[in-house]
């Protein structure tokens, strides 16, 4: 399968997942299907980073998309009578994956780790002592400041993306992904007995996130070819489908 084919499969899975989130009384299996979307998009941000001719422009595009989606979330939450109580911004972890890869490539990984620590201070300060809507500002500030602890998927999505980038053969990919999915499953089982820092670091995940393992057969079918592209289609589809589904769901409640 080409890049385009796999991204379209991921897009459809994501759409079904979010239909299950926003539209009342939808079957639970829509959420199960949706678990395959994130790993596919994460895998291809590494592919995109590897093949782009301008890595800084690539990162800037992802950052703009991330901050733009954070602003969309702000607007939806601030609307009168809004019941929008979550922040969907998958661009944020994708940007951070690219940023971590760039830092590793340029041998500046220490700087990016230092920034994660430094930028966490104002985020924690704001969500603990200044603002009332912690979910809003935690994710918004995480996107703006580029902090992997405060974005969708947390540090685990970033680690998954970095691992995908460096474990390129099908054997390496399979082993890494199986171990990673097993880790997610164990954390899911044990998380109720762990402390708050653990949840902040690892649990931007739901209890069914381990079903992301189902994406592995699709990733193994990747043939290394780009396909027809549709690069900007995916950038625009994400915020538009969130907005449309939110208003449909709101009208049905």
TrEMBL record:
Which keywords fit this entry according to its UniProt record? Membrane, Transmembrane, Transmembrane helix
**Spans traversing the lipid bilayer:** 5-23, 29-46, 58-81, 87-104, 111-131, 143-166, 173-189, 201-220, 232-249
Q: Could you say which residues form the signal peptide?
A: none
Does the entry feature the keyword Transmembrane, yes or no?
Answer: yes
Pfam families for this protein: TraX (PF05857)
Q: Could you tell me which InterPro entries the record lists for this protein?
A: TraX (IPR008875)
Where on the tree of life does the source sit, at the highest rank?
A: Bacteria
Q: What is this protein called?
A: Conjugal transfer protein TraX
Which source organism?
A: Cytobacillus solani
């Amino acid at each position: 399968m080409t890049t385009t084919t796999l991204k379209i499969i991921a897009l459809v899975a994501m759409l079904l997942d979010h239909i299950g989130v926003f539209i009342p009384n939808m079957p639970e299996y829509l959420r199960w299907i949706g678990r395959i979307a994130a790993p596919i998009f994460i895998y291809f941000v590494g592919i995109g980073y590897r093949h782009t001719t301008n890595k800084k422009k690539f990162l800037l595009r992802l950052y703009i998309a991330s901050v733009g989606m954070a602003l969309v979330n702000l607007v939806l939450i601030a609307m009168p009578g809004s019941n929008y109580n979550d922040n969907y911004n998958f661009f944020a972890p994708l940007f951070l994956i690219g940023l971590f890869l760039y830092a590793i490539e340029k041998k500046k990984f220490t700087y990016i780790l230092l920034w994660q620590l430094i930028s966490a201070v104002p985020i924690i300060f704001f969500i603990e002592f200044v603002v009332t809507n912690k979910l809003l500002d935690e994710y918004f500030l995480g996107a703006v400041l580029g902090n992997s602890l405060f974005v969708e998927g947390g540090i685990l999505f970033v680690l998954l993306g970095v691992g995908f980038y460096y474990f390129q053969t099908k054997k390496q990919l399979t082993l890494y992904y199986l171990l990673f999915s097993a880790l997610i499953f164990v954390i899911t089982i044990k998380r109720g007995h762990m402390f708050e820092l653990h949840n902040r670091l690892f649990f931007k995940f739901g209890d069914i996130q381990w079903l992301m393992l189902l994406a592995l057969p699709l990733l193994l079918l990747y043939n290394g070819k780009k396909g027809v592209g549709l690069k900007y289609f995916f950038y625009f589809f994400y915020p538009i489908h969130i907005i449309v589904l939110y208003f449909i769901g709101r009208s049905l409640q």
